Structures are given as C-alpha cells and as structure tokens.
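G., before I forget:
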Amino acid sequence: MQGRQYDVLVIGGGNAALCAAISARRSGASVLVLEGAPKFYRGGNTRHTRNMRCAHDAATEILTGPYTEQEFWEDLLRVTGGETDEELARLMIAESKDILNWIVEQGVRWQPSLGGTLSLGRTNSFFLGGGRAMLNALYLTAERLGVEIHYDAEVIDLTIEDGMFLSARVKRPIDGMAEIRAGTLVAAAGGFEANIEWLKQYWGEAADNFLIRGTPFNRGSILKMLLDKGVREVGDPTQCHAVAIDARAPKFDGGIITRLDCVVFGIVVNRDAVRFYDEGEDIWPKRYAIWGRLVAGQPGQIAYIIFDSTVLTSFMPSLYPPIEADTVAELAGKLSLDPAALEKTITEFNAAVRPGTFDHTVLDDCSTVGLTPPKTHWARRIESPPYYAYPVRPGITFTYLGTRVNRDARMLMKDGRPSANMFAAGEIMAGNVLGKGYAAGIGMTIGSVFGRIAGREAAKNARN
Amino acid sequence: MTVCNSCRYCEGLCAVFPAMEMRRAFSDGDLNYLANLCHACGACYVDCQFSPPHEFDVNVPKTLAIARADSYAAYAWPRALSGAFARNGLVISLVAALSVAAFIFGFAAVNDHAVLFGIHTGPGAFYALMPHKAMATLFGAAFLYAVVALAMSVRAFWRDIGEPVGYRGDAGSLWQAIDDACRLRYLDGGGVGCYNENDRPTDRRRIYHHLTFYGFALCFAATSVATLYHYLLAREAPYPWWDLPVVLGVLGGLGLLIGPMGLLAAKWRGDPALRDASRLGMDVAFIQMLFLVSLTGMALLLWRETAAMGPLLALHLGVVFALFITLPYGKFVHGIYRFVALVRYARERRG
C-alpha cells in the first residue's frame, strides 16, 4: 500500500466507511480502506446495529406502511429539539428513500420486523442477520469491486495543509509504519465514546463508571486530528447518548443484550436506596434514552431497578438474570444497600400507590399520590416476593461532537471555506443532523446516505 | 442461548431462532428440538457480533451440533445400542466389514467354485448365487428392523419435544415440512448460501446433499420397481440397460457417487470452529457407506456379465445389508429427526 497513490483513502470500517468505499469505487476511483480494528471487530458500532430508518411512500414487503419525508422530518425535529441542520437533514431524508434500494444492490438483505419489543415495523428496515451480516455483505461487495482493505491499520497522523489532505501515517503490527498518499480523504472513523480520558474532560471521574456499549476502537483519534488541523466542529462536545444498561455488562462491546427496559415495572433507587426520578414519566423510547443520563448523575453512577415476582416475565429478558431475594431486607443485603433504607423507600412507595388499570403500552392511570418524586404512570405495589433487582449503569452509545460538512459531505474549515479534498460520513459527522437525542436506526441512515455521497464526491474530486 | 434470546438479530436466518423466541426457558426436549431444527448452515456464526473471540463466546452451530449428536444417542432404540453413536465410525466400519465377509463366505460356502466364478446371464442370473426368496427375506427383515427401530426412536423424540404420541397428522404442517425438507430451505444461510470454510458464503453442501438425497431416493425407487416387476410381472433381474430399474439405479447411483464425495470434501475443508469434531467419524461413516453402496452397485452393473459378478454381488449385498441394519444407529437418523422437527416447527407457526 505504501508508495501507491490512491484516488480515495477511507479511514474507518463501518457502514459509512464501506458505503463510501463502494460508492467511490463504483464511480471509478481507486480506493483504500484503513480499518483500525482487527478483522473480527471490523465495522465499529455497525456490528451492533440492526436496522435503518428510511422514508418511503408506500408499504413494502418489509415495511408495514408509508413513512413520508415530512413525517421523518417531524420525528427528527422532535427528538433533536430543533438541534439539526435543516438543509442537511432534509437532504438525508430525501436520499434515504433511494438508500433502501441502493443498499440492497450492495448485497445487504432486509427482513420483515418479526420479534422483539420494538414497534418499528413501519419506519425502520431490519437487516437480515443484523449489523454484522450487513457488514459482511458490504465487505464482500467492496472486495469484489477491487477496494483494497487493511485491518489493524491505525492512522496515527494526518498531514493536512490549509484544508487540503496530503497523506496519512499508518501503524500496522505486521509491517510497521507507512505513509499513505491519496487524492482525497473520507473520514468515517466514528466518535470518541470509547475514549474514557476524553469523556472525563466533560464528566470528570464519573466517566470511569461508564460502560461503553459498542466497539472499544472508537477513540476519536481521527476526529481530534481533524479538529486540531482546522476543521470546524459541530455538536455539543459534552454530550453523549447514554442509556441505562446492566451494571454487570463488560466495559466495552456488550451491545444490545445488556439493555434493560423494565423501569416502568418497578422503582429505581440509587446507592442510598432512595428513589430519584419519576419512573412512570414517559413511554419508550424517550424513557429508554433518559435513564442513562439520570444514573450518571447519581453517586457512584449506579442505580437499582427493583420489582417483584408479578412482573418478572413482562419484559424482554436481558443477558444477566435479576438478583433475587425472599425479603426486601435480604435483597438490600445482596445489593449492598442499607436494608432499613430500602424497606422505608418501598413501604412509602407502596403506601402512595393508588389503584388503576395497568397498561404499560399507554400512559395509564396507575400513579402515586403525595410522593416525591412521584411515579405518574404504571405505579403498582411491590409486595409479592420474591423480590428482584437489576443493577444499572450508564451505557454510552455514541457521542455528538463531529466535523461540520456541507451537502456534498465535504468538511468545512473553521473559516467556513469548504476543504479542498476532505469528506466525512457516519458518526464522525452525525452531529450535523442529530445535534441531540436519538431515533432508532437514524445512525445507520446518516452512515449510508452520507457515506454514499462522500464516496461519490470524493471520487469526482480525485479524478478532476 | 441466553445471549441469543436477548439479542434476536438472527431471527430471519432460519427456523431455529423464531422457535427459540417462542420459549423463555429451555428443557432438554426443547434443546433437542432446536438442535435438530438446525441445518448447520453457519450463517448465525458469521453474522454474530458475540461469536469468538468476543468474550461472550457464542457459537450456536457448534453448540447445536453437539446437542444434536447427543440426541441421536439419547433416542436410540433399543437403549442398549445407544453406545453405537459413541464411536460410530468404528462401529459402522466393523459392521460393514463383517457383513461383507459374511456374504462372501456365505456365497462361497453355499455355491461351488464354478458357480461363484461362473458367468451368469439372463433373467434370474443373480439368483443362481442366492435364491431370490432368501435374498428377499433377509433384506426385508433387515429393512423392517430398521423401520421399527427408527419408529421407536422418533416416538421417543416426538414425546420429548412435547408433542402428543397419538399424533394423527395435520396435512398442512406435514406438507410444509416435506416442502422445507425437500428443498433444504434452511440450508441456505438465510438466502446467500451456506458457510463452511470461512466467512464467505461459498458452500455447495446443499447441491451435494440434494444429489445424495435424491440419488438415494432414486436407488430406492429402482429397487421398488424391480420388486414390482418380480412379483407382478414375473420379470426377474438383472434387467437390460434401458429398463426402468437400471435407469433409475444408474441415475441414483451417479448422485450417490458425486453427492457423498462433495459432502466429504466439504467436511474436510470445513471450519473446525463450527463443528462437533468428536462426531466426525459418524458423519464420515454414513457418507462413505452411501458412496460404497453406489460404487459396488455400479461395479456390479458394469461387470455383471463376467466372472467377477459373483464376488461383486456378495460385496454389494454385504454393503447394502450393513447400511440397512445400521440406519437407526448412524448419521441417517439426522434426516428423520430434522424432518420431525420441521413438522413441529410448522405446527408451532400455524399456532
């Protein structure tokens, strides 16, 4: 790879990187992909995804009904609270229609949404076999088209002069250092959520107790190099998408199976065995997305979801079994909580519960009275042993800080000028569209749409 | 399996995962059901984000391969013979060798030298060496035994996976299972093809299995037609080249030569990560028995008008006999259990 001049260098190996590589190659460019991870871990967080949100005007084999561009836009506006670039967002939504077919042409297969508790059958298309199957298909297509791919290829420096990419310095375990020259650069190397030191800049020591749901390779090194070398940033650097996940999950890469969405069925207490937030405030997905942040704000960044035997089989199982005990005091002992404090919390909660008709699919009328904080929906007494608990910690999914881009996925420099030959796609530029919040499958839409655009534009740029 | 049930990304790949999702906890019978529903296409291994080297170490094809082989032994009838699955390659080889030897010595003992190495042609030529009645009785008994033993095993399996013994069949589920089995619907990696050696869906096992299965079916049809000829039309074997039993037999025989060779080659090349390595002997033994049945049959056809006919007939009959009596104690049972699992899956899906 050293000594050869490529038209397009793609840094990264996930959905956005591969869409960019394939799109550039199909536009006639010579393409090199540098993936920092070993082959098994290739693809960053795409490995853990399973669907993509695309607009469409009619039901299809895999989608149960139409999802118009306008509806998609309104959803995006709602989840981001307006923190989105309307021009780029509308472009992405318009392009997402065609992506449904384009991605199939690249070998990816869809399936109807069958099981699970997700009700996304109308808005989201599911990858047959999940995200790794999608990646495998993209890699096979890229290889077949003649894209050169290297694993364990960590880019440790970029030479950029006045907004123009010249070369990348690569470290590989087998052949050491190499200097790669290319006509254009596509940065698709993800965010920085696996870089605990970086997270500590905004979260302090609390970040030590964060679990990273995805790849340990998203350390944000490419993002940092680009921002340091004059690329304009976008998105709140202090923010990340966090959900509450099982505290027993591994530090990295636990993926989907450590999620817990059973807050509505019980109460949540902190290390002091005290409740701290309304467990019945909102329905999925909003509640799913706020609890990570809530737990991050508690001492020790840990909390416990407490429920009883009546609801044990009411939700999706997670990887780890709940902790079980015959009495509240015994449960407190197993969780290393103060038994008296936990008993007091549960007694007060039970006393405040008013009868109602329980229905976890709507905002029902089961609530507490005279309790602070209240549980405004789905409140039922916790009184049927055995008692159960899930310990939870913040699980970080992705970060919002990124590089500013324009409609061509071309990076913008700090002075507002477009870069001569640098493009970005995927999580590294997701903050342009998704400044805040999250909607299921939107990360994949950003990756595929802007990956395809970045590849095409980079190829055009390189061959001019 | 806990990992799978809380992930479910694979649910579109085959029947195993939807069946798994219908259960929250697994009994032994459930596990045996899932294990036999699995066609070992390998897609869920290649597509799994938690397969090794990930610390969760999820390997569904291998886990189910081990459970599957264990289930064959667990349901063997009579129970005393379940040990045959432990060192299956050795057992099958010994039975085959003894069976062939018995036919050769039997032929030699009963017939004098001139008959054994004589040239026999025309209708009834084979029966110069072994009377038709003896042949029909012996093989009929062996076949009947295999059928009874398999039926008893299936009964145990059916009961263990939670279905009523008095099942009289519902045509829809049965037809769905026949369709699934005949097309090997779930041996396709969810649509792109199977995985065998690596993460590329380049596997040809489905084609080779079709050749083997339909080859076997054609050979069976050839024998059935010949039996009808014998009893209904009083036409005795051997039959001329152009006649139906021979045509069916030759076509089937070719399938049974090419198919097993392909399967065996795939077996050697297969990624050991996906396999139950300790059961390789069982797989190889059955594949080789099918291959040998066809090889000896074809040899008999080619040289039936020479002095080699006698020894070749003994060889062929020996191999066929060994195949028959070992059917309930070898890899053959995979097809039966898998079909039964497909029937149950079809019933579950119909609700």
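Chain B touches chain A through 30 residues (CB under 8 Å). The mean pLDDT of chain B is 92.

More on Monday.
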